[in-house]
Amino acid sequence: MANSLKLLKRIFKDRQAVSETLAAIMMIFMFIAAIGVVWGYLYPTYKQFQTDNAINSVSSYMLSVDNEIYGLLSDGPGSTTAVNVDSFFGYYQYETGKNASLQFADEGSTFSNSYSYNNMGAFAFWMIGRQGSAINVNTHKYLKGPDIQNNFFVNNSDSSSYQGLTNLTIIRPETDIMKIELNYRVSLYYWYDQTNDVLSITISLIIMDIIGTKFMISSYNTLNIHHNESETLFTDSATISTDFYVDGSIAPGFSPFERVLNFAKPAAVSSYDVTIEVVAYYFLFYT
User: Fold this and answer.
1) How far apart are CA 143 and CA 181, in angstroms?
2) Span of 24-33, 59-68, 142-151 with lowest mean pLDDT
3) What is residue 249's predicted lDDT score, i.e. its pLDDT?
4) Is there a domain that residue 16 lies in?
5) Is the pLDDT of residue 22 over 50?
6) Rounded to an integer, what distance in angstroms lies between the CA atom of residue 111 and that of residue 196?
7) pLDDT tens for residues 193-207?
């Protein structure tokens, strides 16, 4: 009888030990599962925060570059400045392949001429490994500048246009890659001399260029920007008696096109003169 009682006590103690061990193991699994659930929620948020922070930082550096270009434009050819840039999780690069196509005509079809410049570039930052839901693959959005600029970026063509030179765009070509692009610029200024009945149009191409065959910044560095020169590329004039307009496109052929200027002839004027000038301002980027 005594032996039987001892055996029962031993079994009871063993079961209690097993139960305590299983409880400890279950608590560990539950803790790990809880960590997994929390991490599954926090990790995407963390990656989104990283991406947003990188976008904001790179945009800030790009706008610094843009401000310096604007200052150099005012200072004139021969002026130079330097900008500190940080690569973060990617690299800066100069890209070519932009076009600016212009077409000048009047509604009466008495005058028609065109001009295209096919060597405009862009200053871009490629962000590698950037996740998050900022934009979907093969889409873009404008970080600065008007939302509607699908074909041609011109400022000061009318009172509703964006005042300034900046066109800063974010693009996601691949899942874990994004690009912020400081794009080509075309500025259109016009004024009408009511005393002499002269419509003067000046179109300014702000052209980014490079020294050498390759330009890339992959680590913290100083970017030098030199306002190299200005050059008149195109001039024309005519006397017309109907409304005048300017069409623009990023690709030769004007398809699709965007009407960037539509000048209505004053009712009291039978005819007026139009003078057109396209001026290029060249900026060299180098390290």
Assistant:
1) 10
2) 142-151
3) 76
4) no
5) yes
6) 20
7) 999 999 999 888 888
Is pLDDT above 70 for 89? yes
Residue 20: inside a domain: no
Q: Quick one: which of 150, 165, 177 has its CA closest to 62?
A: 165
Give the full edge-to-edge strand order of the sheet including 221-240: 80-85, 221-240, 272-286, 198-210, 185-193, 154-155
Which structural domain range is residue 199 located in? 45-286
Residue identified by tokens 């195109």 is 234
HEC-encoded secondary structure of 130-143: CCCCCCCCCEEEEE
Look at residue 1 and tell me if it is in a domain. no
In a domain, 9, yes or no: no
pTM: 0.73
Query: Structural domain tally of the chain?
Result: 1
| Residues 266-272, mean pLDDT to the nearest whole number | 93
Q: In this predicted structure, what is the pLDDT of residue 101?
A: 83
